[in-house]
Write a structure and sequence with these properties.
With about 100 residues, the chain is α+β, with helices and mostly antiparallel strands. Helices cover about 30% and strands about 20% of the residues. The protein has a domain of about 70 residues.
C-alpha cells in the first residue's frame, strides 16, 4: 500500500481494526504519523521480498491499551479489507498527567 492509497476511509478502517485488536474504543486510537518507506537490499533481502520496494510505516498510539499486546491483528485488518501486517513493534509508555488548579 502506498501513502496515497492510505485515504481517510482506509485510515478509519485501520483505526477500527487496531481498536478491536487492542480491545479499546476507536476514540483511544490515534494515528501519529504515516510514512512511505523505500526498501533496498541494504534493509534486508527478507523484508524486500516480503514488502516489495515500497512499504507504509504507520505509527499509532493506543490509549489505555493492554500491556499483553494485540489480539488477532491480521484477522481484524483483513476483515476491514486491509492487507496483513508484516512487522509490528509495540512499545508501552506509561504517561503521567498532572492537573493544576489555577485560582482566580
Amino acid at each position: 500500500m502506498t501513502e496515497a492509497q492510505f485515504t481517510e476511509a482506509v485510515r478509519a478502517k485501520y483505526i477500527a481494526a487496531i481498536a478491536l485488536s487492542a480491545g479499546v474504543d476507536i476514540s483511544k486510537v490515534t494515528i501519529v504519523s504515516v510514512q512511505q518507506v523505500s526498501l533496498t537490499a541494504a534493509t534486508g533481502l527478507r523484508r524486500l521480498l516480503t514488502f516489495g520496494e515500497q512499504a507504509l510505516e504507520v505509527h499509532t498510539s493506543i490509549y489505555e491499551a493492554p500491556t499483553d499486546g494485540l489480539s488477532d491483528l491480521n484477522g481484524h485488518l483483513n476483515r476491514q479489507g486491509l492487507p496483513s501486517y508484516h512487522e509490528v513493534r509495540i512499545f508501552v509508555h506509561n504517561e503521567v498527567v498532572d492537573s493544576v488548579r489555577l485560582g482566580r
